[in-house]
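Possible regression after last week's pipeline update?

I re-ran a chain I had predicted before the update to compare outputs. Posting the input and the new output here so someone can diff against the archived version. Not blocking, just want to make sure nothing changed silently.
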Amino acid sequence: MRKRLYRVLFLVFGLCVNAQQALAQVNHVSINSRQSELNQQPRLKLNVVAQNDDLSQLSFYIRQQVDGDMQQQRLSIQPINRFLVQLNGKKLVTDRYAQLVITENQQNKAVLLAVLALFDAPLSFTSAAFIEAQPLPSSSNQPTKAPRPVEADVTNHVAVTVVKNNAVKAVKTNTVSEPVLQPRTSDNCQIVKDNSDTLWRIADRYKEQWNTSVYGAMLAIFEANMLAFSKQKIHLLLKDALLVCPSTEILAQYDNKAVDKKVFEVIEAKHAAR
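New output (post-update):
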């Protein structure tokens, strides 16, 4: 009887650990853009697609050489939407080869997710609408001596795709812009559609008018009309839902077809898996 109880407890504990690991999965991470240059305080937008939309276990650091010593500073985090965050730091970045280091806290230890070349990211001052949310907790931004260098591929841009057994695969990609959670729309503008229209057909019809690609248009529609999608999943557009036009603020985020295609595919795969 006691052995059976131990076996049950062991099984339950194992399931809990597996569940925790599943919740911690990060499907995609990449630098969206920089709002700072060399010899300035770091400001950048980061694209993050996580299984449970919980970024509280992630930490972000700028790592650079300062007077021959490797130093790093932890960045503060401000959510912009479910898939995009603003990162800010207080210490100047003086190393043109500075890196963005991303770690995840798993079972009381930091696991390296990605190392990205900071200044390979494009410089862009396009504004993004912040949702009403409190900044995620972070520790002091004071630079500290970095741990031993971690072996990692540093490419022009890196997307992190989680595969089986929580292995992390680095894939070269472009920058990404992601949809916002809370709708921000143009006033008095509705999208013309009928119940037979798919999201793709609607986006294809409006892409030229909105000066974007079909993928950018789909992401913009989703961002501005989340309640028009069943369970807020991008592949489940409700047939009888009224759609409002995305604002120019939203559309400004989707100006690269290759990037928007990658983002759409990542989000669609995530939503289809739930």
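Follow-up from reviewer: compared with the archived run. Residues 2-23 form the longest helix (22 residues). Marking as no regression found.
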